Amino acid sequence: MSQFPMTLGSGTFHIDAALDDRTRESCRSEARSGNDAHPIFAFVAALRGTGTSIETLCSLCGCSIADGPVLASCDIEYLAAMPVDETYRVDARITDRIEKPSRRFGKAVHAFVEFAIDRDSDVCAKVRLHIIMPRNSNHD
Amino acid sequence: MTDGPNWNLDDVSASEMIFWADLLDDPNPIHADPEAARRLGFGNRTVNPGPVNLAYVLNLVAQQFDATAPSRITARFLGNVMAGDDVTAVLVDRTADGGSVILQRNGDEVVLQADFTLPQDSGS
Most-buried pick from A8, A22, B2, B63 (CB within 10 A)? Predict the structure, then answer.
């Protein structure tokens, strides 16, 4: 029986104002007006806040970060404001893992991962990712 | 290049890719090591992390809609942005509650396509 869906460890991520400033500078965004972090922080909080790194995520799917996984798609729902200088709780699960032939990689694993980002009792964002992980024969 | 309201960055920075890889806790070598990128079939320049390309698209949405963040965005990552590339996010369609954006690399290749909706109270 498949081990998926698989619930991942929960964790937290703190968005401080200085990090938001630096991130905006890096992606050439306008400076923050008001308290809300750049909306890309829903994605950042998802990956950083869960207790499972992208490297471990690849391992859980039978792949290696060293083989160069790529992001295929993402879907982000913004449900409440995400101000800076707040801490967010992140819950995550791998909803599915499908192995397919790949023209580019030979074989690849398609991993589908969902994250919920909460502050206090409010769900601030839901993030769904589809990641393609090359499946090197060394991991068979 | 596709016509429409746009947002442009004419030289994607290799050093900023390292900042983002660190921010995302993403040790994928294609973001930091040109030799690893070459070995893994991505060419001989480092690859921008996908979320950065999405951040460019979100910059365009904010620019066009009075700094409003979308209520939802769905993006497909169709290609890669490399160090030194010129990227342009273009608003290609407007709907009653949102629109569609593409991100073009070096004036032609579409590397990201996104559909977004705006909050109902955004006055779009």
Answer: A8
